[in-house]
Write a structure and sequence with these properties.
284 residues; alpha+beta; 3 domains; two-stranded antiparallel ribbon; 9 helices; 50% helix
Length: 284
């Protein structure tokens, strides 16, 4: 293979090949326009414990990617006639942004209070409730999908319709044995469209009316019977119940704390620099 020796260079990344060579000119690996790629540019490309074959493939890919990148940069430069000073300024801004981001992250990780109390969540929810309008209908319900040939369907139907006053243990036992799909957490909000996906109810023309007017429904297709009992509902564009968005509210509060910490850090650095006379503003 043409690049077999490159694999040796990559594998021996800890050896002298990759250390800066004084008064020595390296043989280039590739050239694109006026730019050269040298063996030392591949230093640390891969871990030293991979095979020579894998190292060689990785080196070949790196060289090809480098050539394509150099050619793309050269072609773009020829085509758009860029302002080199402007490019340098943007590169410098990006470098500074990376450094600042790393420092801010370190500061936030050290100082951020991630504990959010129920009182904090409730206060924010009540203050900003208009920001939490539902985009979909949600319901609290029981839902069971059973094959049409499942045994004792009439008894199951009676228990299902009577819930929570029927034989709950029998209902759960029957569901675990025969249901193809079920949702039995009657105190948990669920998105209605997600629940009825793949069922005949998916084709409902007016889902708002359906969830508001039907406490119990039973539909079927060629293979299954679908039982649905609705205990509570919220229509799209109504304010979301807190239980449904509690995690979202908590994340919003934490994110606001992050923003406040970043602002505090910036102001603290500015005030310290001002006290220590680390900057001046000249009047013109």
């Amino acid at each position: 293979m043409r690049y077999w020796w490159i694999a040796i260079l990559v594998v021996l990344s800890a050896c002298e090949f990759f250390k800066p060579k004084e008064n020595t000119t390296e043989e280039p690996l590739a050239k694109a326009r006026e730019n050269y790629l040298y063996p030392s540019d591949l230093a640390g490309l891969v871990a030293s414990n991979i095979s020579s074959s894998d190292s060689s493939k990785l080196a070949e890919k790196y060289i090809q990617d480098w050539i394509k990148k150099q050619l793309m940069i050269a072609k773009s430069s020829d085509a758009i006639g860029y302002n080199e000073a402007e490019i340098e300024r943007k590169v410098l801004d990006y470098r500074y942004a990376l450094i600042v981001h790393a420092y801010e992250k370190q500061y936030i990780d050290k100082n951020l209070d991630r504990k959010v109390s129920n009182e904090d969540i409730l206060a924010y929810y009540e203050d900003k409730s208009d920001n939490f309008l539902l985009k979909q209908n949600i319901i609290k319900c029981l839902f069971v999908q059973t094959p049409k040939d499942a045994p004792n369907l009439n008894q199951f139907r009676r228990n299902f319709r009577a819930y929570p006053d029927g034989n709950i243990e029998d209902l759960y036992s029957y569901t675990s044995q025969f249901a193809s799909k079920s949702f039995l957490e009657d105190s948990t909000w669920i998105i209605f469209d997600e629940l009825i996906y793949g069922t005949p109810l998916e084709s409902l023309q007016n889902k708002n009316d359906f969830v508001s007017k039907n406490k119990y429904s039973e539909t079927s297709d060629d293979e299954f019977i679908y039982f649905l009992k609705i205990f509570d509902y919220k229509i799209s564009d109504e304010i979301s119940p807190l239980e449904f968005i509690r995690e979202d509210v908590e994340n919003i509060i934490i994110n606001k704390r992050k923003i406040a910490l970043k602002k505090k850090l910036e102001e603290s650095i500015y005030e310290d620099a001002e006290k220590n006379k680390e900057f001046e503003i000249y009047n013109r």
